[in-house]
Amino acid sequence: MPLAQAQPAPKGRSKGGEYEVLKSEKEAVIKDLKDKFTRAQSAILAEFNKLDVETVTKLRRKFREGGVEYKVLKNTLARLAAKGTSLEVISEQFVGPVALAISYGDVAAPAKILTDFIKDLETIKVKAGVVQGKKVSPADVKALARMPGLPELRARLLGMIKQPHAKLVRTIAAPGSQLARILKAREEQLAKK
Fold first, then answer.
1. Among residues 60, 36, 51, 53, which one has the least CA distance to residue 113?
2. What count of Cα atoms within 13 Å lies in the side-chain half-sphere of residue 4?
3. Is the pLDDT of residue 11 over 90?
4. Collapsing DSSP states into helix, strand and coil, what is residue 148?
5. What is the rounded CA–CA span in Å between residue 91 and residue 85?
6. 26: how many CB neighbours lie within 10 A of its CB?
7. pLDDT tens per residue across span 70-86
C-alpha cells in the first residue's frame, strides 16, 4: 500500500487552523493603501456591525456609481499605511469593524452617499472623516452631505456666467426686433389701404 502523498501547504503559515498573511503580502497591502490615502480628497470612516451581504452589495454599488471607493480595513495595516498621509489624523480610530469611503474628486460624494444610505440603518455609524487633510466629526459629515456636490456647483457657476451674456444679447437685439415690429405693423397698415 503506497503512502499518502503530502499535499502542498497553503500560502502562509498555519496558525491554529488560520493562515498568516506573508510579510510581502502585508507590505503590498500597505503600499496600496498608502497610495490611496495620499490621493484621497476626502474619506469617511464608518463602523459597521451585523451587515448582511445584500446590504453591503447595495452600498458598494451606490459608492461605485458615485465614483467613491469603499474599503473594509485591516486596522493594523491601515494604521501603518496612514502614517504621513492626510488620513493619519483619524488613524487612531481604525479600531473594530470599520470601512472607509474614499473620494479622489468630489469631496462631498462619500458623505452624501453614506449619509443617505444609513438614515434607516442602525448597523452603520459614521466615526469620523477627513476632507482635504482636515479631520471632521460625524456632525460635520452630515453637514457636508447637505452641501451641493461638485456637479451642482459647476452647473450653478455656469448659469451665473451665462446669465450676463444672455441679458446682453437680449438688450442688443431689442432695438432691432422693435424696429422689425414697427416695420411689420406699417406694412400691414399700408396693405389695408
1. 60
2. 3
3. no
4. coil
5. 10
6. 15
7. 999 899 999 999 999 99
Decide: helix, strand or coil at residue 65: helix
- Does residue 16 fall inside a structural domain? no
Per-position DSSP letters for 139-181, written without gaps between them? HHHHHHHHS--HHHHHHHHHHHHHHHHHHHHHHHHHHHHHHHH
**143 and 153, same domain (yes or no):** no
CB 62 within 8 A of CB 110: no
Mark whether 64 and 98 lie in a shared domain.
yes
Q: Which amino acid is at 151?
A: P
137 in the same domain as 71: yes
Cβ atoms of 118 and 133 closer than 8 Å: no
Confidence (pTM): 0.66
User: For residue 40, which phi and psi values (nearest 5 degrees)?
Assistant: -65, 130
Q: How many CB atoms lie within 10 A of CB 149?
A: 17
What residues make up the domain containing 184? 149-193
Q: Does residue 3 lie in a domain region?
A: no
The CA-to-CA distance between both ends of the chain, in Å, stands at 124
Show the cell assigned to 68. 467613491
User: Residue 157 carries which side chain, given as an amino acid letter?
Assistant: L
Contact between 122 and 46 under an 8 Å Cβ cutoff? The reply is no
Residues 128 and 185 in one domain: no
Distance from C-alpha of 107 to C-alpha of 131, rounded to nearest angstrom: 7
How many other C-beta atoms can be found within 10 angstroms of the C-beta atom of residue 165?
9
